[in-house]
């Protein structure tokens, strides 16, 4: 059984610290020790930063008409993972170097329990033949340290074309004066590649 002497010291990032059994280290560092003339060192990597998810676009509106009753919802998903030192970490628990993630489309902003699929960071994720309604893209990504992110996009809405222009008269009640009509055209996303 190896037992460190009572007056043994370790060097953490060059700083001499008295060794205590079970001492906790809470940030990445280099640990060096010299026991009975034998020197050894190791790097302790601590990563408490979960991956981040970027959607492009993040939500939006698709218009459909009576002939084309569905839309293909499209968004590009990018996963970034910074290690404990704030540097990009190109490995992931789910995927390895390609930063894979899991995703599922849902009509609710409540976390789905099944139907998750795998894709790679930077890929386009498509929900084909979406009928009128509201859809959310849920993404789950986990890095090699076990930090996990589970989140959902802003809503992707599929509406009939006539619902995409809003006319709002002011006042809305009968009047002898002029009426100001505010007309709003909603910015549309296209389901074409």
Structural account:
This protein has 193 residues and is mostly beta strands. Helix content is 0%, strand content 49%. It has no helices and 16 strands. The protein has strands at residues 9-12, 15-18, 29-35, 38-44, 52-56, 60-64, 71-80, 100-106, 117-120, 123-130, 133-142, 148-152, 156-160, 165-170, 180-185, 188-189. A hairpin with a 5-residue loop joins strand 11 and strand 12. The protein is elongated. The termini are far apart. The model is unreliable at 91-97 (pLDDT under 50).
Short overview:
With 193 residues, this protein is an all-beta fold. The protein is 0% helix and 49% strand.
| Structural category | mainly beta
Strand content: over 45%
Instruction: Give the count of helical stretches.
Output: 0
Largest sheet: 7 strands, mixed
Quaternary structure annotation: single chain
Mean pLDDT: 81
The shape is elongated
Order of helices and strands: EEEEEEEEEEEEEEEE
How many beta-strand elements? 16
**N-to-C terminal Cα separation, in Å?**
66 Å
Give the fraction of residues assigned to helices.
Answer: under 10%
The parts where pLDDT drops under 50 for at least 5 residues are 91-97
Q: Output the radius of gyration.
A: 27 Å
